[in-house]
């Protein structure tokens, strides 16, 4: 039987029938997380077929290749060594070099945080402004937001990513350049948004500190030469972001310097330790127990075999409110592709649209659509309350998440509605029906601390890489991002009125915008 045969067999059954057996499914666990896959269109036979598929697709070999530092990014001819950034006792020299880039950043962060390194006028740094975009922005922003209550009180932390000049205006508002460190993160040191914001920040610092302005910049990049050009002979701090670290896998790198400075010193250490624990699990666990393999198989099953084109990520944790945005880049930039490294097209859907938000807030918004729209989207609940939360709130949050998953799966029939409310007119009763049949995953941890955030992100990284393998994709490049950038460059002269845009509709829009 093929995977499609299993899917057809299961889709012919009422979801409740499938779930009555699946209630006995054993949750999986590793590095502080439990994962429950009970509520899916799966059964023992379908799972066995998926495990055989994982074997055929050599997922265990793919894991070995990653951790052996083999070239897993063929278009750029590189290994993917993000895991080395969190390897506590690296054995191999290349891994040690990658790890050293983190050690250097941590040393610098402590010097800044404890004022042994100060600004050009001798004042201590009281504010850090992180400038970067995409993979050079989402990660540190996520960590800082998650552990806002673990911020050092004497250091202000701000972020700027957008080309919209307001973003930097707001990030610098009220700050004193003499007490501000600008952390510029760009792997390529060629990204338009980041260079634009960095150059405006440089003007801002230079206006008050013409001599020694460069002491107010820490640049983190794989392209040291470009950073040196940018400094134009001035003395500046440049930290290494190794070439083997993809931007969207760089949360563990020196690129998170701003967090290392502005958060309590154990946060980043615990965050990386959690990731390393997940690495150990993924590197050693068998297919059936391996969280990353199981989730990658689920992604393939839901997107490619069952044809669900989206997945909703519902984070029942204030600390994880930026997680959907973070994972959009990780998963959709990695696997939102349709051509294999050898140039052949893939045979079906690949990474689904990932969207979502923070529970319970989303319940007062798009959950209506999840429950009653004709579209069916698998949901992924992440249940992980805060470290020091009030227990009533935690109980409420947990109850809501569990209730949502239950209703999505079981629905509410017309007969149930009428039994509960016999006097309702039929047209109202019909509108209260929930079709059900909506699958969901529950990932839960007793408390969300830096260790568990680290292990969760590492899990999603491995899941993304392995799902990419199942789809036959290179998860480490992003050709689709480039075209829009090139086109924007071509349109700037048209917006300045220097020439006509070649596309008629764009030309019409430019004329309207300029009028
Ligand atoms: O770190 P940078 O080189 O500035 O790149 C920043 C971001 O921009 C690119 O367009 C890519 O789409 C992202 O993967 C990358 O993280």
UniProtKB/TrEMBL annotation:
GO biological process, one term: gluconeogenesis
Annotated PROSITE patterns: P_GLUCOSE_ISOMERASE_2, P_GLUCOSE_ISOMERASE_3
Pathway(s) where this gene product acts: Carbohydrate degradation; glycolysis; D-glyceraldehyde 3-phosphate and glycerone phosphate from D-glucose: step 2/4; Carbohydrate biosynthesis; gluconeogenesis
UniProt GO MF annotations: carbohydrate derivative binding; glucose-6-phosphate isomerase activity; monosaccharide binding
Catalysed conversion reaction: alpha-D-glucose 6-phosphate = beta-D-fructose 6-phosphate
InterPro entries per the UniProt record, alphabetical: G6P_Isomerase, G6P_Isomerase_C, Phosphoglucose_isomerase_CS, SIS_dom_sf, SIS_PGI_1, SIS_PGI_2
EC number: 5.3.1.9
Keyword Isomerase: yes
GO cellular component: cytosol
Enzyme active site: 333 (proton donor), 364, 485
Main subcellular location of this protein, as a coarse class: cytoplasm
Family from the record: Belongs to the GPI family.
PANTHER family the record matches: GLUCOSE-6-PHOSPHATE ISOMERASE (PTHR11469:SF1)
Name the UniProt record assigns to this protein: Glucose-6-phosphate isomerase
Species of provenance: Henriciella algicola
